[in-house]
Amino acid sequence: MKQLQRQSGTRRDEDIPISQTSLYSPKALKHPKSLSRSISYLLKEQRLLFILVGILIGSTFFILQPSLYHLSSGTHNHLIARSNSFAGNRESITYYDHNGVMETNSVENKNNYKYHNGGRVPVGIGRKRKRIVVTGGAGFVGSHLVDKLIARGDDVIVIDNFFTGRKENVVHLFGNPRFELIRHDVVEPILLEVDQIYHLACPASPVHYKYNPVKNIKTNVMGTLNMLGLAKRIGARFLLTSTSEVYGDPLEHPQKETYWGHVNPIGVRSCYDEGKRTAETLTMDYHRGAGIEVRIARIFNTYGPRMCLDDGRVVSNFVSQVIRKQPMTVYGDGKQTRSFQYVSDLVDGLVALMENEHVGPFNLGNPGEFTMLELAEVVKETIDPGAKIEFKPNTADDPHKRKPDISKAKELLNWEPKISLHKGLPLMVTDFQNRILNEDEGKGNK
Ligand SMILES: NC(=O)c1ccc[n+]([C@@H]2O[C@H](COP(=O)([O-])OP(=O)(O)OC[C@H]3O[C@@H](n4cnc5c(N)ncnc54)[C@H](O)[C@@H]3O)[C@@H](O)[C@H]2O)c1
Question: In what pathway does it function (predicted)?
Answer without folding.
Answer: Nucleotide-sugar biosynthesis; UDP-alpha-D-xylose biosynthesis; UDP-alpha-D-xylose from UDP-alpha-D-glucuronate: step 1/1
